[in-house]
Structure formats: structure tokens, C-alpha cells
Write a structure and sequence with these properties.
The complex is a heterodimer of chains A (193) and B (425). Chain A has 193 residues and is an all-alpha fold. In chain A, helix 1 runs antiparallel to helix 2 and helix 3 runs parallel beside helix 7. Helices cover 62% and strands 1% of the residues of chain B. Classes of the chains: A mainly alpha (193), B mainly alpha (425). Chains A and B meet through helix 2 and helix 3 of A and helix 2, helix 4, helix 5, helix 6 and helix 16 of B.
């Protein structure tokens, strides 16, 4: 049967549209818990993109760390620190201008960067159909231990392999630890003696 | 299945039908099991409290009681308190329920992925299955917290805050317990973890070494905490908080919270039986003895898998029954006691068990049943296959269709003989 639509592309567009729309909704919302909820939807859609790309492990990681952990902590913190019932946040127009300036500058760097890498330029339909989706969990796990098995194919033995992700992983985990300690500090009961 | 169907209809329709079959099967599993478990809960609690429980509806044993409850809930007025955050209030039950349901996507109900060279009976064969299930189960909490926050009631808010405090305490030991199993099996693939325990019950991971034996109980404690069951039902706590996070809910929305709770109870019990209790492998390999394996044709293989499915569901029902038993036996803990239990007792025990299991595995590799028995040879073959379907394809093994689960486009483009059975449970 004919395929008028290439379904992976459709799902990709769907997930990215959800992610983008709800990311904007985070900005426009004034209620802080609704913001958190929109953020959850946006991050979940990003996890959907990872699943679509066949990166089960990274997708589950996204769900676990960002959607699950961080947001539960965020809400936990909000609930324990806020004094009023529904916290409303208003943004000044000056803040909007400032945010657009910085965000726009970042976007101007990121877009050319994304389009300048030839491997990221996208494939034709015929090429895309021939791509084998391999499971990424094992290479990722080896990479986290410092062994880049993904680079072994066609690798020149005289040159050293690129380093693994161990250092980055450690940096991220220390960072998360700092976040946790900070959240505990914010949420702790303030005793007045 | 989508590949098979796409030969006969449009691709989008094939994808839709394949997805719907999986969804309907899983939805029915969750809904029907919730019906059964609610009845079971009433019956067991009645017996524990020296009552009869439901006796009349549906003739004997009151087995239609839950259906009558459901009818009553549907006809109830759907209330929303004034001052509540309407959107979040309406969404919260569905978030809880869909998170609970989503965990079933990656749970295999019968294995043989690598050993029998066929697909496991899972809606989606996720490579990092354990991790995915844990991640999705963690999301259910979000519905609870949103419900508590948006209800504009102090009881609900208290329930939600307790829930948040509980989450940060039980998730740490729960993750550690799962890591022990992942470490022994060398894989996060649930179907591989289950297949590794094929054979006699001595191959079950709970009996692998003393540390896994301890780990199982820690896992079960934390899993009970994760599904908000007594003695960890602090978010509900009807004697203190009216009904906790669902105080303001009524009718069908309220019942969605309950469906989510029973769904998660089933999924953590399924996970417990796959991780520790052999999954779809019974205590005795009866299916092998009477010849229901892949060697005797497709029909025999699927009959064997059906037996495995029954096995797994039976174990899960036993797990849920134990949770019910525990609920009606133990008094509720205080919130500080919950945090103490999880962080001060379960976490160190799980950490010691992790360390111990690592050293045990290092010192006594290839031993099962507390180091007394050799690991069967089949497990090693399993591992070679388990390192990736790529390995099998490269070696030109062609015992059967290797429908590699994962993104569906792979399934649609792979040039493999489509089969009817295997993908759908």
C-alpha cells in the first residue's frame, strides 16, 4: 500500500509541536503550579522524541530525572515555601524585553550551529527508510564507563578513542547533588527560638 | 503486528489497529484486575476483621460487588469545590491513571525473547525496560500532588505534601533494589531478566544469594510505599485527613484514582515477580517437560507462553493479595516514621545488599541458589543473544522472525517475514 505520509516525521512533528507549545505556555502562565504542569508536558514530549529516535535509555532517563525527580522536588519546594495558596507570578515588561534579547541571542547561535553540522541536515525518505535503529542502551552504558564501543567500527587503531562520558556524568551528578541540597535547604522548617 | 496488517490495509490504519489492540488489551487487564482486586480487598479485609465481606451481589461470594460500586459511582454527582484550580483538578485523575497504565507498555507478560528466538509478549519491547517502568511509575505521583494542590482544601494539600515527602524517601531504596537485579543479569531488558530465571525455582533471583533475598523484601516494602498502600497510605490517611488528596473528588473521577492505585499495585507486583520470582517461569519447568517449546512448532510455543502468562499473573495476584493482607494487618505509620523507614533503614540495607551482591557475583560467578548450584548453560547462550538483536542478525541466525521492538518505523521497514503472533499479548 502506498504511504502518502512518512509516519515517523509526522510523530516527530507532533511531539516537537507539543514540546514547543507547552514551553511557550510555561512562559505565559502566571500560576506557578500550572507552569510546573506545562513544563512536565513539554519535557514528556521531549522524552517522546527520544523514544521516537530509538533512544529508549535516554528517553527513560528524561522521564526519570527531569519529569519525575526535578518536578516533584520543584512542587515540593513550592508548596513548602509559599505562604499563599495559589502563587501568582507577574512578569514586568522590562523583563520580557530582557528575556527576549538573551533568548534571541542564544537562538541565533543555536540555529546556525544546528544547521552547520552536515550529519544533522536530515536524510531523504529513501535514505531514512534504510536506517537501522539500533538499541543504544549498551553503547551508552559502556560510554558511561569510559569505553566508547560506538566508535570502534572503522576506527584507526593508532589514534586514541574519544573519551567516555564518565567525567560529564560525574559533573552532572555532583550538580544534581547540589540541587538536592539546595532544595532541602529551601524546604527545611525554619525554627525560631 | 503493524507490519502484518500493513500488507492488507493502509499503513496508518495498520498502525492504528496494532496500537489499539495493545491498548485495549492492557486497558482491559488493568480495569478487570481492578474489579477483581477491589472485590478481593473487601473480601479479605472482611475475613481479617471477622466479617463476611460482600455476600449478595451476583449470587455467591458477592463477586459482582465491584460492578455495583462502579454503577453507583457513575451516577454520582461530579463536584468541584469553589476556588479550586479547575483545569488541574479535572486533569489530575487522568494523569494518575494514564501514568499507571503507561507502565504496562513495557512489561513483558511472557518471555522467550532470546532463548526461543521469538518476541516477548509485551506491547513494546523496550531495551531499558526496568528503567522505563520505574520512570513512568514515578509519574503517577504527579497526579496525586496536582489533585491535592488544586483542590483548594487543606486536607488535600496536606495529603499532597505528605506524598511529595514520601516520594523522595522511597524512590532511593527502590532504585537501589532494582540495580541489584540489573547487576546480576547484566541487562535492563525485562524479558531477558525473566528468561534468565528459566528452569527450576532454584534459578529465581530471590534465591540467587542472601543479599538478593534481603533485597526482595526491601523492594516489596518500597513498592508498597510507592503505590500508597497502608501502612504507607499517608497521602490518604482517612482517620487524619478525611481522605487526603482525593477528599474533594467524587464519582467517576474519584474512581480513576482507585483504578490507578490498583493498576500500580498490579504493575509493581508484576515487576517484583519478573525481577525476583522468575517471571513467567513457574517453579517447575512444566512447559519444557510437556514439550510446549519453540522446538515443537509455533502453536506449542504460544501455548507455553500462555502458560507463562498465567504464571506471571498468578504471581502478581499473590503479590497484590499480600499487599492487601499487609494493609489490613498493620497500623499506619506516621510521616516521620515513613521517612525513617525508607531513608534510615531501607536505604542502608539496600546499599549493603548492592555491595554484597556485587562482591558475591565477583567471588562466585556462575552460581545460583545461594551459590550451591551452577548457572544452567542456557543462560550464557541467552546473554550472547541478549547483547543485541544485531548480534543475532549478523551471525545469520534465522530461527524465526526477529521483530525488533522499538520505534515502529523500524518494524515497518525491516525486511522480515511478518508474523501474526508474538507482538500482541
Amino acid at each position: 500500500m502506498g504511504e502518502p505520509i512518512y509516519w515517523p516525521s509526522f510523530l516527530f512533528l507532533l511531539c516537537s509541536a507539543i514540546a514547543c507549545v507547552f514551553a511557550v505556555a510555561v512562559l505565559l502562565a502566571t500560576n506557578i503550579v500550572r507552569m510546573a504542569f506545562y513544563l512536565v508536558v513539554s519535557l514528556s514530549a521531549t522524552a517522546g522524541l527520544f523514544f521516537l529516535a530509538g533512544a529508549d535509555f535516554v528517553g527513560a532517563m528524561q522521564l526519570m530525572i527531569y519529569v519525575g525527580g526535578t518536578l516533584v522536588l520543584l512542587i515540593f519546594g513550592v508548596m513548602l515555601t509559599s505562604q499563599e495558596r495559589f502563587v501568582e507570578m507577574k512578569t514586568w515588561s522590562g523583563d520580557w524585553v530582557f528575556a527576549f534579547l538573551i533568548g534571541g541571542m542564544l537562538l541565533m547561535i543555536l540555529i546556525p550551529a544546528a544547521f552547520s553540522v552536515p550529519q544533522w541536515s536530515g536524510l531523504d525518505l529513501s535514505e531514512a527508510k534504510s536506517v537501522e535503529v539500533a538499541n543504544t542502551a549498551t553503547p551508552l552504558g559502556m560510554g558511561l564507563l569510559g569505553a566508547r564501543v560506538d566508535q570502534l567500527d572503522g576506527h584507526d587503531p593508532s589514534e586514541p578513542l574519544q573519551p567516555g562520558y564518565l567525567l560529564l556524568f560525574e559533573i552532572a551528578s555532583v550538580h544534581l547533588l547540589v540541587v538536592l541540597v539546595g532544595a532541602a535547604y529551601l524546604a527545611r522548617a525554619k525554627h525560631k527560638r | 503486528m503493524a507490519i502484518f496488517l500493513s500488507n492488507y490495509m493502509w499503513t496508518w490504519l495498520a498502525l492504528l489497529v496494532a496500537a489499539l489492540v495493545h491498548v485495549v488489551l492492557l486497558l482491559n487487564l488493568v480495569a478487570v484486575s481492578a474489579l477483581v482486586f477491589i472485590w478481593l480487598e473487601r473480601k479479605i479485609s472482611g475475613r481479617i476483621q471477622d466479617r463476611l465481606g460482600p455476600t449478595r451481589v451476583g449470587g455467591k461470594f458477592g463477586w459482582l460487588q465491584t460492578l455495583a460500586d462502579g454503577l453507583k459511582l457513575i451516577t454520582k454527582e461530579d463536584l468541584m469545590p469553589e476556588g479550586a484550580d479547575g483545569m488541574l483538578f479535572r486533569l489530575a485523575p487522568y494523569i494518575s491513571f494514564s501514568a499507571s497504565l503507561a507502565a504496562f507498555i513495557a512489561i513483558p507478560f511472557a518471555g522467550g525473547a532470546f532463548l526461543l528466538s521469538s518476541t516477548p509478549w509485551a506491547a513494546l519491547h523496550v531495551n531499558a525496560g526496568v528503567f522505563f517502568v520505574l520512570a513512568v511509575l514515578g509519574l503517577e505521583v504527579f497526579g496525586t500532588i496536582l489533585a491535592g494542590y488544586s483542590s483548594a482544601s487543606k486536607w488535600s494539600l496536606f495529603g499532597a505534601m505528605r506524598e511529595a515527602a514520601q516520594v523522595v524517601s522511597y524512590e532511593v531504596p527502590l532504585g537501589m533494589c532494582v540495580v541489584v537485579v540489573v547487576l546480576i543479569c547484566g541487562s535492563m531488558d525485562l524479558s531477558l531478566i525473566g528468561d534468565r530465571q528459566a528452569g527450576l525455582f532454584t534459578n529465581w533471583l530471590i534465591f540467587h544469594d542472601p543479599f538478593t533475598f534481603v533485597t526482595f523484601w526491601v523492594y516489596f516494602t518500597c513498592a508498597t510505599a510507592s503505590v500508597n498502600r497502608a501502612p504507607f497510605d499517608l497521602a490518604e490517611a482517612e482517620s487524619e485527613l478525611v481522605a487526603g488528596f482525593h477528599t474533594e473528588y467524587s464519582g467517576l473521577r474519584w474512581s480513576f484514582f482507585f483504578m490507578a492505585e490498583y493498576g500500580s499495585m498490579l504493575s509493581v507486583s508484576l515487576l517484583a515477580s519478573i525481577l525476583f520470582m522468575g517471571g513467567w517461569n513457574g517453579p517447575l519447568p512444566i512447559a519444557d517437560w510437556i514439550g510446549l517449546t519453540a522446538d515443537h512448532g509455533v502453536l506449542a510455543m504460544n501455548a507455553g507462553k500462555l502458560l507463562g502468562l498465567v504464571n506471571l499473573l498468578l504471581k502478581a495476584v499473590v503479590g497484590v493479595s499480600v499487599m492487601i493482607w499487609v494493609r489490613w494487618t498493620f497500623p499506619r505509620l506516621r510521616i516521620d516514621q515513613v521517612i525513617t523507614t525508607c531513608l534510615k533503614y531501607c536505604t542502608p540495607i539496600a546499599a549493603v545488599a548492592l555491595l554484597g551482591a556485587t562482591i558475591w557475583q565477583y567471588q562466585l560467578p556462575g552460581r545460583n541458589f545461594f551459590g550451591l548450584l551452577e548457572v544452567p548453560q542456557a543462560v550464557y547462550e541467552l546473554k550472547e543473544g541478549g547483547l543485541g538483536e544485531r548480534g543475532l542478525e549478523e551471525e545469520g541466525l534465522e530461527e524465526g522472525p526477529q521483530v525488533v521492538a522499538g520505534p515502529i518505523e523500524k518494524g515497518l521497514t525491516a525486511e522480515i517475514e511478518p508474523t501474526l503472533m508474538g507482538e500482541g499479548t
